[in-house]
User: What shape does this take?
Amino acid sequence: MIPGQINVIFGWAWMCVGLILGLILGLRAERDQWLGGYDSLTRRYLRLGHIAFIALSIINILYGKELGSTDIPPYVITAGSPLLIFGAAGVPVTCVIAAFFRKAKYFLPLPAISLLVGIGILVIGFMT
Ligand code: HEM
Assistant: This one.
C-alpha cells in the first residue's frame, strides 16, 4: 500500500458516516423542541459531531496524499498516519456520545491533541 493511502481510504469512508448523521439530523431538524431545541447542548454536540466527521475526513484525505510524496520523512508516515486516524475517529464519536453522556467530553482533548501532534510533525517534516 502507498504511504498515506490508509488515511485516504479511511477519510472517504468516514465521511459517509458524517453524511448519514446529517441525514438522521435532517429527519427532525425542523422540530423546534427536538432534543431540547436547536440551541441545546445535545443538538450542538450532534451538529459538531456531524461537521467533525466530514471535516476531519477531508483532513485525513489531504494528509494521506501528502504522505505519498517522496520527501516526507518516514517517522511522519509511521506516527502521523495513525495519529490522524485516531483523532478523526475520536473527535466526532466523542461528540455524539457527549450529546447524551456529558462526561464523555473529557475524552475530547485526547483525539484533538492527536490531530495537533500529527499535523505538527507533518509541518516539521516539511521543514527538515
Ligand atoms: C448528506 C449530506 C448532509 C445532510 C443531510 C446534512 C444535514 C444537516 C442538518 C439536518 C443540519 C442541522 C442539524 C440541527 O438542526 O441540529 C446540519 C448542520 C450542519 N451541517 Fe450538514 N448535512 C450534510 C452535509 C454537510 C456537509 C458536506 C457539510 C460541510 C462540509 C455540512 C456542514 C454542516 C454545518 C456547518 C452545520 C451547522 C449549521 C448551523 O449550525 O447553522 N453538512 N446538516
Q: What stands out?
A: The chain has a mean pLDDT of 95. The chain has one domain: 5-127. The CA atoms of residues 58 and 85 lie 11 Å apart.
